[in-house]
TrEMBL record:
Annotated organism of origin: Methanosarcina barkeri MS
Classification via InterPro entries: SAM-dependent_MTases_sf
Stated name of the protein: Class I SAM-dependent methyltransferase
Length: 369
């Protein structure tokens, strides 16, 4: 199984595993032949999708793992299955789903440029999703309701760590379906892996304190100015009578807040001299987000609390360990496979070694993974 992680847990349904593996092989061949420079897509996706193509085998292993678990253990024929690639970015997961001949594939991303580019990339290889929906979860829910569509699975990679109010998002998930539904959200922001955690804390500090230059391929909606500096300007505009010390206090107190919450905090402080609105996860104080969009800088979260949120919404839910894909060198491949063996056989402690975690849920019981 070339396109499945080595030594990972896979579904017992061998025919589905084989089918997804063969689809990934075909998609690999199609994507290898694509020339991004000839497509009318943004510089951002020429750079980002191009980076995925640079290590295509490993990336397809990750998406094959996500997809195979998303479509198994649901009593719905594949030709009637509805798969939602939420926050799809480049659209590679949607492309793989179409290659598997899933009945209905829906792509979504909050960034309209990515939605447009993903559709163009799909056209270029003849693997378009059935629908492309720009917007957040509310736009997706409205679209599905207006078109009488019920999803059977929603999945993504590196999305949930960017959603501003992740708990509210999880509480809305059940609205995308009125029958069988599986969720499979994988994220590289693994707070239990010390190397990942250290790297992300440094990234948080950079976003918070350092201005950056516009580079080729940057996402146009991303800010160049340090988040703390932007919050300082917002706070001063909301109450020009604040002293410099008060502004400095508020800049710190509103770290990790979007503009609407910053306004609430400043108004409360101006009226009472205190703030009751706090960050959701104080155990990770380095977390910070774009003050205008609420897009988190690789949010470190209490992932077991998120599991509990899903469980409160009537899902059987759990947190699973992620695995390493094959690399371009033999030595790295051997190292990755050795780590995968340890991850698979270390129970929950395997998260310390895992490159990502998965928050998964289903209306039916999930086996431990």
């Amino acid at each position: 199984m070339e396109y499945m992680f080595k030594f990972c847990n896979l579904p017992d349904d061998k025919s589905t595993v084989k089918m997804v593996n063969e689809a990934a092989s075909r998609l690999h061949y199609k994507l290898k032949g694509i020339n991004l420079e000839t497509l009318d897509i943004s510089d951002y996706n020429k750079k980002y999708f191009g980076s995925l193509l640079g290590n295509l085998h490993s990336n397809l292993q990750r998406y094959a793992y996500i997809l195979v678990w998303s479509i198994t253990k649901i009593d719905v024929p594949l030709n009637k299955f509805v798969f939602l690639d939420y926050g799809g970015g480049s659209g590679m997961l949607s492309l793989l789903a179409k290659e598997c001949n899933i009945g209905t594939v829906i792509y979504n991303d909050i960034y309209d440029v990515s939605a447009r580019d993903a559709e163009l990339i799909g056209k270029a290889i003849g693997e378009q999703a059935d629908y492309y929906i720009p917007g957040d979860i509310d736009e997706v829910i409205d679209f599905l309701k207006n078109n009488s569509i019920n999803c059977n699975a929603i999945a993504n990679y590196d999305v949930i760590e960017h959603i501003y109010d992740i708990e509210e998002f999880l509480k809305k998930i059940s609205l995308i379906s009125n029958n069988n539904l599986k969720v499979f959200f994988s994220s590289g922001a693994n707070p239990y892996n010390p190397f990942i955690k250290r790297k992300l804390i440094k990234y948080h500090q950079m976003c918070e304190l350092v201005d950056r230059e516009q580079l080729f391929g940057d996402k146009k909606r991303d800010l160049l100015e340090a988040y703390s500096k932007i919050r300082s300007k917002l706070i001063k505009s909301l109450n020009p009578d604040l002293s410099e010390d008060q502004v400095a206090y508020l800049v710190t107190a509103t770290r990790g807040m979007v503009e609407s919450d910053i306004k609430k905090a400043v108004n409360e402080f101006s009226a009472s001299g205190s703030i009751t609105l706090k960050q959701k996860y104080p155990q990770y104080p380095s977390n910070t987000c774009d003050p205008y969009t609420g897009n988190w800088a690789e949010h470190l979260m209490d992932i077991y609390h998120l599991r509990n949120v899903l469980q409160s919404e009537n899902f059987q839910a759990d947190v699973w360990r992620g695995y390493y894909g094959d690399s371009n060198t033999l030595l790295k491949c051997l190292a990755a496979r050795s780590l995968n063996f340890l991850i698979k056989n270390s129970g929950r402690h395997g998260l310390v070694l895992s490159p990502f975690f998965t928050l998964c849920g289903n209306i039916a019981p999930l086996s431990s993974n």
